[in-house]
Structure formats: structure tokens, C-alpha cells
Amino acid sequence: NHVARLNSDGTIDTAFDPNANDLVTALAIQADGKILLSGFFTTLAPNGGASVFRNVLARLNSNGTVDMAFNTVPNLDVYAIALQADGKILIGGAFTLVNGGGQFARNFIARLNSDGTVDAGFNPNASNRVYAIAVQPDGKIVVGGGFSAFAPNGGASIPRSCLARLNSDGTVDNAFDPKADNFVIT
Description:
Helix content is 0%, strand content 33%. A hairpin with a 7-residue loop joins β14 (149-150) and β15 (158-159). It has a 3-stranded antiparallel β-sheet, with no helix packed on it. The chain has a 3-stranded antiparallel β-sheet with strand order 6-9-10, with no helix packed on it. The protein has no helices and 16 strands. The chain is globular. The model has no long low-confidence stretch (mean pLDDT 95).
């Protein structure tokens, strides 16, 4: 249900069945082979086993079972996941709170440490939903969505229409302002 893995010949890998109870909107594969999933699901029941609560964000072991050590809980949907070279995890979506090693106010974008705890020093504070995230080779972060501004770490609001680039610390890159005139989804 909602997520599958294919063999190299295009057939379904029947040994891999995370069994999400609703849509999966994004995934990313970590260097260690673990798989991050986001979407609208609230539970996973790998291989027909017992349901495991995971609200819109989960990490799977490479065999499709739930990584029980990772239980970060955003309060609303996650639409985008991106991995940084240092193993940190960027998430974007409709959320305003993320519970991971404590509860943190995070408007629409957050960075998690590799263990799922919230990176307390990263808070770009977008004004509206983030639908897309990409990490550049230099570590800068390109973000797309329906936002009109960022106020990093609660500071002054910096206008950015639907497309922005952030420095690796979550501040706005002032040299990049394409002024998109509509939502950026992917």
C-alpha cells in the first residue's frame, strides 16, 4: 500500500512491504540504506505485521521494517525531504511544530539531525508551505513553495516569492531572488 520497491528487472520486490495507510509524497535513501518516507500516513504495518504509529514521517530499515529509533512527529503534512552531505535531514511541508528531542516551533521547514532530533540552530521560518527542497553541492539549500518571506530565527522578515535559496545555517542567501510569480511544487 502506497509504497513499493522494484527489482532491477521492474518486478515488485515482494519482501519489501512497509504498508503505509495513506499516501507517500516523498522519500529519500540515506547513505546507510535506510529510507525516509513522508506523506499523509499515520501508521505503517510492515509485511502485514502490527501497525506502528508514525505521523506523516518515518524512517524504514532497508528491509522495509520501521526504524523504531526514529520517531520524529511533525504536526501536519511533510511534502519534501532532502539529505545533506553531513547526514542531516531537511523536511518541508505544512507543519508548524516538530516533536523530535523536544517540541520545536518550525514553520514549514526544519532540519533534523541524523537521529531524528530537531536541529535547534536551524530555523528559516517560512511564511507558508514548502513543497520542494534541493541541496546544492556547496551546501546551500534551494526551497520552493507557496511562501512570500522568511524570518530566520525570528529576525526581520525577508521577502522571497515562492522560490528562495538558504545558506547552510538557514539564513536567506541575499544574492538569490528570482521572484517566482506562483507556487513552486517540485
